[in-house]
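Our preliminary data section would be incomplete without showing what the modeling component actually yields. Below, a chain of 202 amino acids is followed by its predicted structure, encoded as tokens that our downstream tools consume directly.
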Amino acid sequence: MSIEIKAVKRDVRGTGASRRLRRAGNVPGVVYGGEQAAVSIELNHKDLFMQFRHEAFHASILSLVLDGKAESVLLRDYQLHPVRNTIQHIDFQRVSATEKIHVKVPFHFINEDVAPGVKTGGGNISHIQTEADVSCLAKDLPEFIEVDLGTLEAGHAIHLSEIKLPKGIEFVQLVHGDDAAVVSIAKPRGGSEEVAEETPAA
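Predicted structure:
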């Protein structure tokens, strides 16, 4: 899925200028990285927010059309208004087709309702991690990673090393020797739940 966002160069900078932009329904931002200099940009808030609210916007290579020229970027940072939940500022990073990137990708948990630990074991699922940092080339970046609970028993957990990844993708934590648990099913005991022993403490 290709997500396209449009922007124009922003010549006027500063707090006052950014405030005027927001009042006019636009969002100040910046795009940086690669061999080019950082560029201050502005985007239409309504159009941007329609894309921003989708999960894929936060973990996909985006096509940023800046003054008619498209370039591949990643969302790197943003600021939301604490009350109105509007985007106050947004940062994008240019990506190279030949250099690996680090991106947080969400987990999608499947077969939770048929997991033996829930269906027959009476346990409750605990999502220990909802996303993970992956390393890959831009072309290999997945929108999400599936975690299949179809065979997970009560009292057990699924770790990073047990999750099947597409070719060319690796978990950054795992590369550094941290085989963290991602999801577990607590084992009932006497009406209360016992957290899986193999699940590390938060």
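The first strand starts at residue 3 and ends at 9. The mean pLDDT is 90. Preliminary results of this kind motivate Aim 1 of the renewal.
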